[in-house]
Amino acid sequence: MSGRRLLDKLWDAHEILRREDGTSLLWVDRHLVHEGSHHAFAKIAERDLPVAEPGLTFGVADHYAPTRGGPATDAIARMIDTLSENTAKHGITCFGLDDPRQGIVHVIGPEQGLTLPGLLINCGDSHTSTHGAFGALAFGIGATEVAHVLATQTVWQKKPKAMRIDVTGRLGPGVGAKDLALAWIAKLGADGARGHAIEYTGAAVRAMSMEGRMTLCNLSIEGGARFGMIAPDETTFDYVRGRPFAPTGAEWDRAVELWSLLPSDSDAEFETTVSLDASEIAPIVTWGTSPEDALPVTATIPDPSLLQGSAADRARNALDYMGLTAGRALTEIAVDQVFIGSCTNARIEDLRAAAAVLAGRRAKVPGIVSPGSQLVKAQAEAEGLDRIFTDAGLDWVGSGCSMCVAMNGDHVEPGKRCASTTNRNFRGRQGRGARTHLMSPAMVAAAAVTGHLTDVRDLLRGREVA
Amino acid sequence: MSGWTTHTGPAVALDRENVDTDQLIPARFMSTPRSEGYGPFLLHDMRHDSDGTPVSDFPLNMVPNASILISRRNFGSGSSREAAVYALVDFGIRVVIAPSFGDIFASNSVNNGLLPARVSEADVDAAIALLADGPQEVSVDLIDRKIRLGNTTLDVTLDDVWQQKLINGWDDIDLTQTHKQAIAAFRAQHVQGKPWAVPVQQTDFRRAGRDTVSQ
Ligand code: SF4
């Protein structure tokens, strides 16, 4: 018999029972809720059900959180109030707008030590895969499932297949986790990992900080995978140790012992394995309306007439929406504004990477920098990063999902083009008619400096790179 | 949610790949209570010009009574927003036919009685070609997992669990309550064996060790 994979170990540790049809009932260790969970609270209220485990449930205001001043509209204010009311009613700890621990749900979970290796974590948000970076079984769920977790602290799920993405070699200077993620999504397609849990392995992944690993796991869903995970190691333990909700003393020691057993056995087999060489990856940007529409910044805009069938139609539609001409260099694309933020790229390391490019320079276009949490904001200010951004002419604002999802009022105007550190370049994602180009924080900073898509490596020459 | 076994209705083609959840329902509509109905928001920004006028030749505007939608690969990719399914269901759509679906969208669909019918790429090509001249009545049979349009029969790939759920209109919460004892036993052993898995500031929870599941 072949060895067990990280996925198997996590699955077995949470399986309460398995039905004949193969669906497992799994125990949920952490349930994170946000304003968007209002449908689910309404569902349990309809049936007059209590929250089964308020002590394992945590709320945070992020999707509608204002990043400047108060809520933009009454409807937005109501969303935030409803979350406070629902969490208060059920005795759930909630990091509201005035709580210094507030931030984006996938940033604050790890930051507070709520996210730990070996846990099963659910949240009504597809980027819950982020928490898999710790060696946790973490996946996004819909409102009906959120209501189910609230009512029972369990979730029904069929075990996915296991895919390994093995990344050998080293990422070059100015190239990071975002580029690696967009590279594999471009290679496999936006549905390339559908039905799979991804485990990221290899030297390039081991060398990554927790911030980089979170970026990588975060984007798993953009390649179709509900789960992305990385086996825990010393880097993981160093990050978690001493966090507010993390175990301490003898419990910590015991936990680390168990966590050290989680990595996939050396003879474990995966349904699919994909290999990438990190040293071959250049900074990547998206040109179209799906994360799979991604290319090295050194490339040219694809020509639909060279593509076949529905791919040609899709490229034509995408270029039309994006207002781009086939065959031109990607670096010729001028941007109207930039956004640095979101659960993908608004952790301290992301802000440092952007600041390293912007230091001593001016942005040619306006833009917003929204830190992933209030604690990240405080840290960045302690390091003087806020001054670098504001000196460059960018706005340093509060923490929340902001322009990633354009729910709080921050949005890109129709037809405007934004270089963005977020995760989705879907039509209208950043506002109706908005044109989004996804890239790393360093690449967004470079675009800000030149006013067009730019290979950040040219701006980093002679500078020290983190 | 009530179950169903067969459905016949007008089908319409949305000949696009990657119809994502942000297109199915733009985020700005999501603070609306469900009771107001999400139908008008379905594919809002594709169905309407920027001034709000309906686009007259958009497929769903030409066949507003469509109950079956045929589209291309990776339908419903993107976010976990169940509102994307509410928009389809409230508009009157009962079945979406495509070669592949976003994983979370597909489970959300089944939880709302909407069938995510997976068929081959070739069958989608054929179906879209058949619908080119206008809408047609299409029949869907959940029991034998077949879709009939004109003289063509398409095979649907559908997980057994989802098939049963759609047919029976099962509610998972009710189903799970029947496993109360197994859950309580698991919880006791899990919390005892891995005390570190309980957030450290929630020690009251551990001391009390209350059997909340059976409340
Ligand atoms: S930042 Fe964007 S992707 Fe992340 S949780 Fe918020 S809305 Fe979702």
From TrEMBL, chain A:
Matching Gene3D superfamilies, A to Z?
Answer: Aconitase, domain 3
Segment forming the signal sequence = none
Q: Which gene encodes it?
A: leuC
Residues that bind [4Fe-4S] cluster:
343, 401, 404
User: Aconitase/3-isopropylmalate dehydratase large subunit alpha/beta/alpha domain: which residues?
Assistant: 8-451
Task: Note the subunit structure.
Answer: Heterodimer of LeuC and LeuD.
What EC numbers are recorded for this enzyme? 4.2.1.33
Q: List, separated by semicolons, the cofactors it needs.
A: [4Fe-4S] cluster
Q: Which family does it belong to?
A: Belongs to the aconitase/IPM isomerase family. LeuC type 1 subfamily.
Question: Mind telling me which Pfam families this protein's record contains?
Answer: Aconitase
What task does this protein carry out? Catalyzes the isomerization between 2-isopropylmalate and 3-isopropylmalate, via the formation of 2-isopropylmaleate.
Question: Which pathway is it part of?
Answer: Amino-acid biosynthesis; L-leucine biosynthesis; L-leucine from 3-methyl-2-oxobutanoate: step 2/4
Q: How is the cofactor bound?
A: Binds 1 [4Fe-4S] cluster per subunit.
Write down what this protein is called: 3-isopropylmalate dehydratase large subunit
Keywords attached to this Swiss-Prot or TrEMBL record, sorted alphabetically, are: 4Fe-4S, Amino-acid biosynthesis, Branched-chain amino acid biosynthesis, Iron, Iron-sulfur, Leucine biosynthesis, Lyase, Metal-binding
Coiled coil segments of this chain? none
Reaction equations catalysed = (2R,3S)-3-isopropylmalate = (2S)-2-isopropylmalate
Question: What is this enzyme's class at the first EC digit?
Answer: lyase
TrEMBL record, chain B:
User: Catalyzes what?
Assistant: (2R,3S)-3-isopropylmalate = (2S)-2-isopropylmalate
Instruction: Give the pathway listed in the UniProt entry for this protein.
Output: Amino-acid biosynthesis; L-leucine biosynthesis; L-leucine from 3-methyl-2-oxobutanoate: step 2/4
Question: Quick check: keyword Lyase in the entry?
Answer: yes
Alphabetical keyword list: Amino-acid biosynthesis, Branched-chain amino acid biosynthesis, Leucine biosynthesis, Lyase
Q: Known Gene3D superfamilies for this protein?
A: Aconitase, domain 4 (3.20.19.10)
Q: Which residues form the Aconitase A/isopropylmalate dehydratase small subunit swivel domain?
A: 3-121
Report whether Phosphoprotein shows up as a keyword of the record. no
Q: Which domain of life is it from?
A: Bacteria
Matching InterPro entries: 3-IsopropMal_deHydase_ssu, Aconitase/3IPM_dehydase_swvl, AconitaseA/IPMdHydase_ssu_swvl, IPMI_Swivel, LeuD
Function of this protein? Answer: Catalyzes the isomerization between 2-isopropylmalate and 3-isopropylmalate, via the formation of 2-isopropylmaleate.
The record's family statement is: Belongs to the LeuD family. LeuD type 1 subfamily.
Q: What is this protein called?
A: 3-isopropylmalate dehydratase
* Organism name: Marivita lacus
